[in-house]
Amino acid sequence: MATPQELATKILATADIQINGSRPWDIQVHDERFYARVLSGGSLALGESYMDGWWDCAALDEFFHKLLRAKIDAKVIGLQHLIVPYLKAKLFNRQKTHAYNIGEKHYDIGNDLYTAMLDKNMQYSCGYWRNAKTLEQAQIAKIDLICKKLKLKKGERLLDIGCGWGGLLKYAAKKYGIQGVGITVSKEQAELARNNCAGLPIEICVIDYRKMDEKFDKIVSVGMIEHVGFKNYHTYMQVAHRCLKDGGIFLLHTIGASRTTTNAGDPWIDKYIFPDGKLPSIKQLAHASERLFLTEDLHNFGAYYDKTLLAWRANFVSAWPQLRLTGKYTERFYRMWIYYLSCCAGAFRARSNQLWQIVYTKRGHKEGYERV
User: Fold this and answer.
1) Which DSSP state fits 279?
2) Coil, strand, or helix at residue 119?
3) Are 63 and 25 within 8 A, CB to CB?
4) What DSSP string runs through 147-171?
5) What is the DSSP annotation of 32-59?
6) Which residues contact residue 22 at a Cβ distance below 8 angstroms, ignoring those fewer than 6 apart?
7) Longest alpha-carbon distance in the chain
8) C-beta separation of 289 from 295 below 8 A
9) Rounded distance between C-alpha atoms, residue 116 and residue 329, angstroms
10) pLDDT per residue as tens digits for the range 337-366
11) pLDDT at residue 101, rounded to an integer
């Protein structure tokens, strides 16, 4: 019978990954307990053992790219990886009962962290790198692409569901002359967003999206529906429909799953990064929106998320000496955050995850919608 190390070596070899090899994507194992732990605990154990310093890899992003392209994640599934997320998703509506959980656990970590990691417009979503050479350029291109797809006009009211630190609203107000309302469940985000948008016709509110009930010319939502949960997709679409004027446009920017599931997300990501998160599939979004909206345009530029995540990681590494001095962040946090950014970069490089911008109207415009 093969030992855990022999079995792990055989499995990793199918992805062209060696244990204690010399290539950047090969892993270096420091603790022999690693093998049994990961084989029994799957994704959660892989991430936790990295946080514990049991193994290292010079190119974590490429390690995950190779793992996912070889579909190793389907070959090593611990019991808790398979059963617990399934039961949680089926038995509970965690996103409804813990609506503010993601704000407290992720976005309220500290504005200093996100200010150091992100671009000056504080965009925590995929940049548009088509003609960009820097993170700053890619994020401005993304914001402007959204504004053009929304066909914003001076004086229009724009609702941003999950507004982050207000960067999109600030840009739209200054360049396109809109009046904006941004909503978030993060108190830290709201505080910084109000400062960023000071002097502009923008209101920032800490509120559950389900409580919104006023009309807007246009609605945008960037990186928000990933926290809603599949049981609430229709409710989310109903809120957008209720708040959108009849002739308006709604743009949804979201990370997407390549296949439809009802399970909770990856157990390590769920525990340490995005609690209660769930990536929607095209099928789930279509089902949730089909009686409410007409889909005018769908744009996938998920390949650009790889470059975005690597740019964030480079900024984080550069800022780490200063962040560590604050006393708020430990070495274990450093390993956790590097693991998070790297594994996500690898997932997008493998095209396991997608990034969609979807344009909706209520009934369609008589003259049609011209794609940007």
Assistant:
1) P
2) coil
3) yes
4) HHHHT--TT-EEEEET-TTSHHHHH
5) TTHHHHHHHHHHHHHHHHHHTTSEEETT
6) none
7) 72
8) yes
9) 13
10) 999 999 999 999 999 999 999 999 998 888
11) 57
Any idea what the Cα angle at residue 243 is, between residues 302 and 103, rounded to 5°?
55
Query: What is the residue type of 143?
Result: I
Residue 344 catalytic? Answer: yes
Check: pTM over 0.85? Answer yes or no.
Answer: yes
Output the 3-class SS for 63-114: HHHHHHHCCHHHCCCCHHHHHHHHHHHHHCCHHHHCCCHHHHHHHCCCHHHH
Output phi, psi for 251, to 5 deg: -110, 125
Q: In the structure encoding, which two tokens stand for residue 139, read together?
A: 């994020």
pLDDT tens string 37-80: 999 998 999 999 999 999 999 999 999 999 999 988 766 554 34
Cα separation, 223 vs 114, in Å, equals 15
Classify domain 99-361 at the CATH topology level: Rossmann fold (3.40.50)
Sequence spans of domains, the chain: 4-77, 99-361
Q: What is the mean pLDDT of residues 214-221?
A: 98
Q: Is 266 helix (H, G, I), strand (E, B) or coil?
A: coil
